[in-house]
Amino acid sequence: MRVVDRSTARNFMKYLNKARSDYAKTNERIHSGKRFDSISEDVIAGTKVLRVRTDMCKAETQLNNIKSAQDELRTAETALMAINNILTTASAEKITAALSEEKGEVGRIAIADEIRAMLDEMLQYANTKHSSRYVFGGSNSSYTAPFTLSSEGKLLYNGIDVDLIQQDSDGSYYYMNAGVKTKIYLDTDVFFDIGLGIKLKGTEVDPNTGFKISYSGLEILGFGRNSEGLSNNIFNVLSEIEKNIRNYDSEKLNKLQSHFRTLCDAFRSNLTNIGTQTKLLDTMEERLNNSIDSYKERIKNLMGIDDAEEVMNQSMNEYVLKAILQMGAKLLPVTLMDFLW
Amino acid sequence: MRPTFMGFEAAKSALFTNQKSLDIVGNNLANINTAGYTRQRVERGAVSFSAYTSRVSSSKIGLAGQGVEALGVSQLRDAFLDKCFRDEYAKASYHSQAVNILSSIQSALTDGNDITSESGIQGAIEQLFSSLNQFINEPTLDSSANIVMSAFKNICQVLNQLDEKLQVVANQQIEDLKASVSRVNEITAAIAHLNEVISKDAALLSENGHFKPNDLLDERNLLLDELAAYGDIKVTELPDGTINVDFGDHRVVSGNKADALAVSVTDDQLVGVYWKTSGDNVVLTGGSILADLHFINGRGNNVQNSSESVMQGIPYYRDRLNSFAHALATLANNSVPEYDPATDAPKVDANGKIVYKTLLAPSQYSGSAGGQITAGNISLSVEWTQNGPGYFIYNRNEAVEDYAQKLASSLVDTRFTFQLYGETFTGTFAEYNVEMLGRLGADLKFHEGRHEAFAAVADDFLDRRDEIAGVSQDEETADMIKYQKAYEAAARLMTILDEMLDVLINRMGRVGL
Question: Each residue of A135-174: b (16+ CB within 10 Å) or e?
Answer without folding.
Answer: bbbbbbbbeebbbeeeeeebbebbebbbbbbeeeeeeebb
